[in-house]
Design a protein that fits this description.
The structure is a homotetramer. By secondary structure, chain A is mainly alpha-helical. Chain A has helices spanning 10-27, 34-41, 45-51, 55-64, 80-97, 99-109, 113-135, 150-165, 175-187. Chain A is 65% helix and 0% strand. Chain B binds a DNA duplex through residues 2-9, 12, 33-36, 38, 42-47, 49-50. Chains A, B, C, D: InterPro entries: Homeodomain-like_sf (IPR009057), HTH-type_TetR-like_transc_reg (IPR050109), HTH_TetR (IPR001647), Tet_transcr_reg_TetR-rel_C_sf (IPR036271), TetR_C (IPR011075).
DNA sequence: ATCTAAGCGAGACGGTACGTCAAGTCTTGTT
DNA sequence: AACAAGACTTGACGTACCGTCTCGCTTAGAT
């Protein structure tokens, strides 16, 4: 038995995501409503509810929809610090570009574990994986005596991103990158 | 010209704060409404709007109302690490005790700069002040070569608290304390 | 361009009007609130505000919604008095049957010209038209010397209805009909 | 035991009545609130509630407070029509001067029997008494065959006043006076 | 000449209803 | 069967007034 009826309209999907991006950027996630999204996207509300569970889910798909973070290149040990530093700069670049959207998503994550899980999957886990890779693979996951494990360092970096995203709290200057450079240096020192 | 009219009812004030604490703990900040607070506190809605600007403001007063963080004791240099470690443990204890309320407050901070400023004033600034104190006073505020400044370290610790508060993201285990111990060791090492 | 979307629910419309009729009869128009109407009719407040401008407008539609007054039969000149007397008795019957609703509507008319206009259109104008018909048509509209014009008589009868509706003021006995009989006799005398 | 404490402040009383008169004239009785009266009169709300039962009661005292209608002069029979006509003109003059206040009072009367009773006592009863006087005293109260009794005529005139007060409904022209002249002529004819 | 009880302006209180906004569901007709 | 449009019930919003209740402060007869 094959499926009957019309296929899902990609045009509507894209219009919804685009409208959401615009509205969040313009007025902040709090002031975005499903009704405004539907109106801006020329889409019926039932269409939205058919495909997304909540306003949070639309936002998550906006931010984390495609490929989010760059892959880690395999590099020689001598270039690790340079490569890692560049990689984290790219991460921060992505964060800054999507600051308004991510801010809303982070706010949502504090009340909705589902969103928190998606944030972890698309942001936290890749960071930790990259650090483990640089630290020398899974075998080195256990914390070094008196030093930070890749896991702990990932937490720290994720926290730094959360801090940077908070309005007023975090400046958007380069201090985070320098912090990271100092910390990453600890990873391999001995 | 003296103050005329009836005085503000402290009973109502306390009832509102207590009701908010209960409701946030029971169902999460998102599901708390002004109407439910008013009903639970046996208080009229206008009374709430007379004294608080928003639901966020009530929450902020709940969490940050009294004395929040312990003061830093003056200690001898030899005891710095012990003392700092204990102090940060106390901070985390406060955070864990008020986790549900703080989670809501952090979520609000991501959309409301006013709340963000209060969070910084009551949590971030005391942490930074303590670190500066331990680092040897204002004269040592500038970052040490290859090390973390007290300011950067405060950002890192605040970020760690944000991470710990996020549902699913942060575990409530002792790892943050250990992270802190490692980092604080860097402050004075040279 | 055709009409899109869902049609207006006649069920809701009828429920609102019925609930209003009941509530006005039970407790008087002053104590009727939109919220009570909505609750009794099991209808949302926005639905009410979508279709009616005010509480007054709902009441007006309740009272003046359908066919209000009986038409005037064409009758031979000899039967005019009998016929007119019967017709006015029917008018008073309608007034008495809807006394509670009309009382509220009249009260509203004194503060809201819109309601006053509707009252005139559905009650005053038909009365005047009937009197003109009995007086011999439009050609006889001008006042007879020393007598009452149909227009003046209509004002008098409308005033008598207002008086009868006022609580305490007007008795609900038959005196109005007799007054009318005396007055109508003046219309055609000579 | 005599009364202790301060006497009622006549200044406050007058200020309340004056403020009410102004507010009703400016915006209509519906939009007048106790709070606005208190503010305009520089008077506390409890002072108002201490002396008046309701907003209606304040209005009633505004309109019907002093001497309302002129007394009927004793006149010779030959001058009755002239005298009665002048008297009713004076009544209509009073009505027109206080139209805005009376309109509110009439609206209130339709929902509040207390107000209706006051209206009858200060307006309806004097009219009926005057008509009885002109008709030749109490002995002539019974209706004349085929004519209107003074009681019926009083109802008619009161109704005409109600009609004249209603917005849109009644014009403020002289037609009511002429109507009255025609009717009063019926009183004594035979 | 005090004392003291009531009246006073001001304004906060617990409530009720307002009119609006948005949520998520249901209906209608079109593609 | 999925779509755009839009009416539906529900429930919370923030505001306006209600009528009551403190607040200190007059004010004036009783002591």
């Amino acid at each position: 038995m094959e499926k009957l009826g019309r296929k899902r309209s990609e045009k509507s999907r894209d219009a919804v995501l685009q409208a959401t991006r615009e509205l969040v950027t313009e007025s902040g996630f709090t002031h975005v409503t499903i009704e405004k999204i539907a109106a801006r996207a020329h889409v019926g509300k039932p269409t939205i509810y058919r495909w997304w569970q909540s306003k949070n889910a639309i936002l998550a798909e906006c931010v984390l929809g495609g490929e989010v973070l760059p892959a880690v290149d395999e590099t020689s040990a001598s270039e690790i610090h340079t490569s890692a530093s560049e990689w984290f700069r790219a991460v921060l670049g992505y964060v800054d570009e999507n600051a308004a959207l991510l801010r809303g998503l982070v706010a949502a994550a504090y009340e909705d574990p589902e969103i928190a899980a998606q944030l972890r999957a698309h942001l936290g886990d890749p960071i930790e994986a990259a650090l483990i890779e640089w630290a020398g693979g899974a075998g080195r996951e256990t914390p070094l005596a008196g030093e930070l494990s890749p896991h702990a360092l990932a937490q720290l970096l994720f926290g730094a991103i959360l801090y940077r995203l908070a309005p007023t709290l975090g400046a958007t200057d380069a201090s985070d990158v320098e912090m990271f450079d100092v910390l990453i240096a600890r990873l391999h020192t001995q």
